[in-house]
Amino acid sequence: QVQLVESGGGLVQAGGSLRLSCAASGLTFTQFAMGWFRQAPGKEREFVAAIGRVSANTAYADSIKGRFTISRDNAKYTVFLQMNSLKPEDTAVYFCAARIFTLATISSDYNYWGQGTQVTVSS
Known about the structure:
Elements: E1 3-7, E2 10-13, E3 18-25, E4 32-39, E5 46-51, E6 58-60, E7 68-73, E8 78-83, E9 92-100, E10 112-113, E11 117-122
Parallel strand pairs: 2-11
Antiparallel strand pairs: 1-3, 3-8, 4-5, 4-9, 5-6, 7-8, 9-10, 9-11
């Protein structure tokens, strides 16, 4: 079955960096666009970034544009989210998601989800 396993979350001070990874299995990775979403306590899940089947096609939420970078390694079935200049408002559980063929920014458009990894940014 399809599995998406996130890693790399943790506690970091404001201004710091983290790199999230999402390892995929049970699917043909190159047929899927990949996305990152996040959910803070008491809030709805929100789009963060997405990457198409080819790395040149990306999309970012305005709130993180210029600070976060999404990338993928198709040989390793892994997608990454490099997060720089972190702010306390970035604190959330970050989820990896896979969508067949095309990139999307809406969570309901994604076919598969990981369990999430906690990111906490202290002020």
